[in-house]
Amino acid sequence: MLDKLYALFLSSLGLSFGGYILLDEVADQVDRLTTDTGSNLPDPEVRSDAF
Question: Which residues contact 40 (CB under 8 A, 6 or more apart)?
Fold first, then answer.
């Protein structure tokens, strides 16, 4: 029982870490796109209200 819980914990930890790396990569690509074409994004205060 404990070994299954531990394996579940490790796999969820790995998934969250992998998701963080994926999000970081997406953010890098968005940064590259906006620096290439100029910023099409709204003002930072408008963006922060969306979240």
Answer: 34
Range 11-50 burial, b when 16+ CB lie within 10 A, else e: eeeeeeeeeeeeeeeeeeeeeeeeeeeeeeeeeeeeeeee
Give the DSSP per-residue string, 11-26. Answer: HHHHHHHHHHHHHHHH
Distance of CA 18 to the CA centre of its chain: 9
pTM metric for this prediction:
0.36
Q: What is the pLDDT of residue 3?
A: 87
Per-residue pLDDT at 29 exceeds 70: yes
